[in-house]
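It is worth pausing here to work through a concrete case rather than discussing structure prediction in the abstract. The textbook approach is simple: state the sequence, then state the predicted structure, then interpret. We follow exactly that order.
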Amino acid sequence: MDELKKLCKKYDELQSLHGSKELNSIYFGGCINEPDICFVFMNPTKRNIASSKDWKGIRSPWIGTKNSWDLFYKLKLIEDSLYDKIKSIKGTDWTEEFAKEVYESIEKNKIFITNLAKCTQLDARELPNSVFENYLELFYKEMDIIKPKTIILFGNQVSSIILKEKISVSQNRKKEFILNNKYKCYSVYYPVGNGRFNMDKSIEDIKYIMKEYYGKNI
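Step two, the predicted structure:
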């Protein structure tokens, strides 16, 4: 845990360079000890209410949002009661206690959720590769600390930067890559925001991976 705290300090330093200065960086959440799957998204925005300077709870992805949790619910990685509450309350009604409860459910299911870049933006602007690349070595350290069994990379940009080769998700569905001679990786369609229309394809591929490696037939 001390090693992860050191990484968080580095992420905070990069927030001042690449993110909005009135917002906090967002870290990660879930199982930090050899999770079955690590989900890697792009970067957070102010819609995550944990980025507020007033927030004192965990600073994990997607806190205070709705649509992203559809993915985890359809994969049976979050409890029905928590999902129902997420969908019924306003994002600003998330409490620090509720965020902790949601991520305890994620942890119980051996899942880790993170972004490649932790710099919170005011909106969903497209970031240049150079910003993500500034987080790359820290991301590799993050993976070496938690040691995930499988890594799901969402979208072409994240996949290409992490794997250091040009990746098109449409041409590499259900294809296994090996990251740094250590970790099984899959490139999957980005399932939220502008990529929401691809969520069904993302779910199809993730279900395949979960059944292939963990015998979970969802």
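Step three, interpretation. The first strand starts at residue 28 and ends at 30. The CA atoms of residues 33 and 146 lie 5 Å apart.
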